[in-house]
Design brief:
This protein is of the alpha+beta class. The protein is built from 7 helices and 12 strands. The protein has a 7-stranded antiparallel beta sheet, with helices on both faces. The longest helix is centred in the last third of the chain and has 29 residues.
């Protein structure tokens, strides 16, 4: 993985999507191998002692995590397995077929709020029973919902509602966790979420500025094959929880601008649980740590 900039005169190299056996800059046709090395450029052979062998695209630290490609602009950051301990093994247990999954559907949700507002909303279920009727009555049991830090991961766990009343079939004998819901939020902007039936979906927050972001929702099937069940789940999610959250976070963003807002204390229940905001305290501490380190 490389920064998208030519080492010649700083033109952007590629746009859009696709694949190629070489990377050719559209400005002066400097051409790079896929390992970043400069292969050729018009008239460079006429330049005495031209340092062709020294020129290479600037790399970006990259890790593959169950087939998902993560990049990190900090070359000195800890590996993902150290930053998010246990997540790789847990996710593999909850979604045994994860290495065979491919995207089926992407849903882009623009939100008129700061990305941290959206992530804080995702990272607590204090508001769930009041605001997410479908999620709180058809998927999880809110009274059992808990969120705990796990390294720089927020681990969501809960019991599920009566699986006999689910709107799609679940084979409870298929593996170790078919009847469970779980989520792993990876600080700062990504989450793996598993619905009963080992159904993987993902959240990816993309900040645009101090008051706007886009949330990419991904839905997956083995081999990316068509699935009416997953399509319906994506629609249900989009029309219920996603739509409900959109109103909440945009209201918070407006409220943050009010001269009348005096921040109150977080509700920190020593026993944790659904009506505690200890997960928000963790998020805010990670943000402070990041600012201090920067």
């Amino acid at each position: 993985t490389f920064y998208n900039v030519c080492q010649h005169r700083a033109h952007e190299l590629v746009s859009g999507s696709g694949n190629s056996s070489l990377v050719v800059c559209p400005y002066h046709a400097w051409t790079y191998e896929l390992d970043g090395r400069l292969r050729a450029g018009p008239n460079i052979r006429s330049v005495p002692n031209f340092p062709k062998s020294e020129i290479c695209l600037t790399g970006v630290r990259t890790e593959v995590f169950h087939g998902f490609i993560f990049v990190n602009l900090d070359d000195d950051a800890a590996p993902m397995d150290a930053w998010f301990p246990g997540v790789r093994e847990e996710l593999g247990a909850f979604v045994p077929q994860i290495d065979a999954l491919k995207p089926l559907e992407w849903v882009e949700i623009p939100e008129r709020c700061n990305w941290k507002v959206s992530i804080e909303n995702y990272s607590e279920c204090y508001h769930c029973s009041l605001n997410h009727k479908t999620f709180a009555t058809g998927v999880v049991k809110p009274e059992t919902y808990d969120i705990q830090p796990q390294g720089h991961c927020l681990r969501h766990t809960t019991e599920c509602q009566n699986l006999d009343s689910m709107t799609y079939p679940i084979d409870l004998d298929s593996n170790e966790h078919p009847g469970e819901y779980s989520s792993w939020f990876l600080w700062p902007t990504f989450s793996f979420q598993v619905y009963p039936g080992n159904v993987l979906n993902t959240y990816h927050w993309r900040p645009h500025g101090p008051a706007s972001c886009t949330v990419w929702r991904g839905w997956y099937t083995e081999g990316g094959v068509e699935s009416e069940v997953i399509r319906k789940l994506a629609v249900q999610d989009r029309e219920t929880t996603v739509e409900e959250d959109n109103h909440l976070v945009e209201s918070v963003q407006r409220g943050l601008k009010s001269k009348g807002y005096v921040p109150g204390p977080l509700v920190l229940d020593p026993s944790s649980g659904v009506n505690s905001e200890h997960s928000i305290r963790a998020l805010q501490q990670w943000m402070r740590d990041g600012v201090d380190e920067g």
